[in-house]
Amino acid sequence: MEEGQAGLSLNQGSFSVLNPFPCSQSTEQSPTLPLNYSSTEETQSGSNSSWQTVVNLFRQRKTYRTEDAVPRENGPELREPIVRGLEQCATGYPRLAAFLDSDDNFMIYRRFGFLSSRILLDQQDKLRLLEEDLDTIDQNDAETNPHRNLTRDLLEEDNKERQELLVKIKREYCEYAKFLCAARDVMSFNKPAGDEWRSVENYIWNRKQVEEQETKFIYHKEDLVTLRPGREHAWLDRSVERLLRWLNCDLIEWTFCSKESRQKSKGIEVYYSRSRIENVVATIITSVILILLIVPIYLLYHFTSILIDAGEENVACVGILVTSTLLFSAIISVFTRAKRHEIFAASAAYCAVLVVFIGNIGGRVGMTPASS
To answer: Transmembrane region positions (predicted)?
Structure first.
């Protein structure tokens, strides 16, 4: 290698390597390479083409990190999540809207079931009258000219009245169907839980953001719906939230409140992180499943090992089997939204696992004295 030449040169016949990552010399440094990185120009015409391909791919894969390219010594943290706090909104409907939007459990509104029924009844009666008019036209045609009811290929003046009436029926029926679908969709919404309703009612009553007459919607409890979709472990979630509110302290808030949830309110309102609560719920569900599997198996093994009388052993095993299956069914019903046939199938599978275990352990225990 000649002195003053940067890189490494290895000559063996026609094979030559000069700096595994060559690039044109420049005073600018790549943001993804160390500052002491040095390069040379390609000076040998016989370089392998594969190395040139590697060089081109390396140059194309250079990336620039935003945090290095954009100085942020001054100005706000542009990459921080933006959270709308209650205090940032004007008093009145803006702040009430911000509160209802601050948590999925607080999105409670009226469904106006009475008005929906009135609209449907009115539209239904309009269709009833149009149906009677169409029956009258059909009956008149049947008496005067029966051929008109057998075909649609009629003169315009002979079929004009019926066609105009059918256009009205079509328009009114489309409106009626639209209202029916809207009412069905609203009826499919979930009812707010008692704790959710109480939280919203307490805020409206204590804060008094709007006129008293306009806050009475929250007291139409039978007419309220929540936009929150039903969760798999809704009952357990609410129980955990209720326990957190009862044990509320600085440690609880530090553990279950994220940075974003703390920014929602500077007052007495406390927002727990939904993801952290779900992690606690998942841990509880997993622990319960493990307990329901391990404890009955241990008890069955224990009783089949210590009981010598076969009658006592059978009674103890059947008692453990029945109790465990009932407890499993109850937990599935309470902790999940499983349907009846799903609960039945899961309980049958759980009971089958325990029965198979009893058969295996019982056979081994019964064979032990004979073999000895």
So the answer is: 280-301, 313-336, 343-362
